[in-house]
Amino acid sequence: MSNGLIPATILTGFLGSGKTTLLKRVLTEAHGQKIAVIENEFGEENIDNDILVMDSQEQVIQMSNGCVCCTIREDLRSTLADLAEKRRKGELDFDRVVIETTGLADPGPVAQTFFMDDEIAESYLLDSILTLVDAKHADQQLDTRQEARRQVGFADQIFISKTDLVDEGSVHELTHRLKHMNPRAPQQKVHFGEVPLAQVFDLRGFNLNSKLEIDPEFLSADEHDHDHGHDHDHDHEHGEHCDHPHHHAHDDDVKSFVFRADRAFNAAKLEDFLGSIVQVYGPKLLRYKGVLLMKGSDRKVIFQGVHQLMGSDLGPKWLPGEKKQSKMVFIGIDLPREILLQGLEGCLV
User: Fold this and answer.
1) Region (Disordered) spans which residues (predicted)?
2) I need a surface site. Which of 8, 83, 314, 330 has the fewest CB within 10 A?
């Protein structure tokens, strides 16, 4: 990394989805890369510690003190600070960090740790959140556990494991369901954790500017979205594009919607509106992200957030002949879609 920051990846997913398999695979395949692994698992989950250390010669730091959402932030913060310090002193040598969270964790606080603490922010770059979904048990887990739905909502990249154990129709339905919850995370089937490293690391899911240069399709929302005539796409939730009869069985509380507008935003109004939205709905907002056309600026403004933490950044200039348009995607739990859409509409020039 040219800027000297240590890339960090958060690996999340439900119990049994194959996180450890994927992790082991990545560690053994990471030729020439030294990876520090931070594990945060509940007691009985700590079975693979010895194997990981033996296989990969990595430093594994085990954190077995319960739930990430309450206690781990400080633990994680001090662990990350400690690792960075040892690396600076030359006591430890590693190129990147992978944090494997427990199957019951909300990745939000883990992600927030990278932005809340100056020391961490100066040492690490949060690269992406990877979520592993077990095709065989996904429907039941998504139906019964909000944590599973949250993990899907947070993902920058979704890996679907165990697709060989279910029929193709079920996999198709699952990918549809996940797409509704999180249109911005690419999905990929994995077999026994066999994932090329290029699809695991340096995805730049959180790194605003480069994401747009790397992936021009960023925020094209739904591949079925032909509705480009309107300011925003209302077909997204109603599923007119779904050709699958069982598709409406799931009305998940984690939903996404996209806002598009060709008119520019008034910066002050937008800042006020988003500020108040984040104050009120922060805990229910999982991820939100956008490329914005601002009045008076010849550059794209790129913004994103996790829960209550919101940040924006000046992006590249709008190119001559490029269609100038704001696009935003919000992923959250029972978000008041109309309030948001109307509010955003009211911030346009």
Assistant:
1) 221-247
2) 314
